[in-house]
Amino acid sequence: MDFNLTDDHLMVQETARRYAERFLSRIVENDRAGTYDPSLYRELAESGLLGVAMPKKYGGLGLDYISLAIACEEMERVDTSLRVTFSVHAGLCGTGLMQWGTPEQKEKFLAPLASGEKLGGFALTEPNAGSDAAAIESTAVREGDYYILNGEKMWISLADVADTFIFFAYTDKSKGHNGITAFIIERDRPGFQSHPIHGKLGVRAGDTGSIVLQNYRAHVSERLGEEGEGFKIAMSCIDGGRYTVAAGSVGLIRAAKEASIRYAHERRTFGKEIGQHQLVQRMIAHMVAGEETSRLLTYRAGWLKNQGKRSTRETALAKWVATNAAFEAASDAIQIHGAYGYSDEYPVERFLRNAKGAVIYEGTREIQELMQGEYALGYRQDKPLRCPPVPWPFPDDKEA
Ligand SMILES: Cc1cc2nc3c(=O)[nH]c(=O)nc-3n(C[C@H](O)[C@H](O)[C@H](O)COP(=O)(O)OP(=O)(O)OC[C@H]3O[C@@H](n4cnc5c(N)ncnc54)[C@H](O)[C@@H]3O)c2cc1C
């Protein structure tokens, strides 16, 4: 076991940190105003990071899954909205296309994502279906070489800005979740509409919205996987997405810890720095433990991903532990700041608002608990997939 970061990892860490820190003041303004700024992602695309863990063959940097985690940690240390955009683009959509896409689909849809020319999204949740994904109501009806897609998706990150989405719909409702099929859809096509959601608690500098498809025509070549494989594809994409959420949460914990340590040295009560009070030290100690355990769990999942092994249990565990630890760290960071932490004069109230989202999306806290309980009791086992997770070095790059 080697805990050293490679030169590539250090390069990604330095680049992601530099870009994220450069964006900070604009993000704070966007968070206050509740606006998404597309120029940040055009700048980020220049760095190559949007395709950090995508094959070089398709224009990515071709680096490993640990590099992906490092980039997420550095982005969320500055703001969750940066990491959410990256997660949805690279984690949910990118890894899904890498794992399930045909060579032609990768050429057409993954390459523009890898280069950062386009942004990717993932559209599963609906007004009446979140945790219970099989309850979706969207439909896809085959007509010759096309499928006619209808349905409404809700709470979709980048709904109003991404170019390409993986969209899930029933092709055969009678088969239950085995009747769901995945499609690659594009914004600039007839039948696609999106609407922003305003008034969110957190991720306010990010874009979240709804997508409505009305008689959208998807060619059969835009079906991802086979008919009926959509549920498995959705869960595979979520394996990629949860990994990035876990990694990002490590960054949020770090940010909460750094802000708390700074303040604990500045603020004095009862004749000494508040950092000298043991109850304040305890909150900071919990942040240290949360950061380090979450990072180790995330890297363990990344290590399995590098080997092309299925890591659903390990990734879900990392996501659960890291998002809870991030929420606790953000809450304690406000506590350490006292009343000042309760205002936007300090960043910690933003951390708490942002941390709450990650305890909900990509599998709520309760769903993560159920999963870990079921794995431990032997009620849940992961079966091999027709398209297994893509190992690193990427086979596409070995062939190239
Ligand atoms: C900022 C943000 C971004 C998002 N981005 C995306 C995106 O890009 N794409 C996408 O498809 N979705 C996205 N989502 C949606 C997200 O994945 C769902 O909100 C999430 O899966 C939970 O679904 P729900 O909100 O419908 O809650 P519900 O499923 O209705 O759950 C409500 C409550 O009941 C609990 N509950 C449900 N079932 C059980 C059970 N069996 N046992 C115990 N408790 C249970 C839940 O834990 C929760 O506390 C996003 C959400 C947010 C907030």
Description:
With 400 residues, the chain is of the alpha+beta class. It has helices spanning 7-33, 38-47, 65-78, 80-100, 103-114, 230-266, 278-306, 312-341, 348-358, 365-377, 395-399; strands at 120-123, 139-143, 146-157, 164-170, 180-186, 192-196, 208-219, 223-224, 268-269, 272-273. The strands form three sheets. It has a four-stranded mixed sheet with strand order 1-4-5-8, with helices on one face. It has a four-stranded antiparallel sheet with strand order 2-3-7-6, covered by helices on one side. A two-stranded antiparallel sheet has the order 9-10. Strand 9 and strand 10 (272-273) form a beta hairpin. The chain starts with 6 loop residues before the first helix and ends with a helix. 52% of the residues are buried. Flavin-adenine dinucleotide (FAD) is lined by residues 88, 122-125, 130-131, 155-157, 203, 208, 357, 360-362, 364, 366-367, 370.
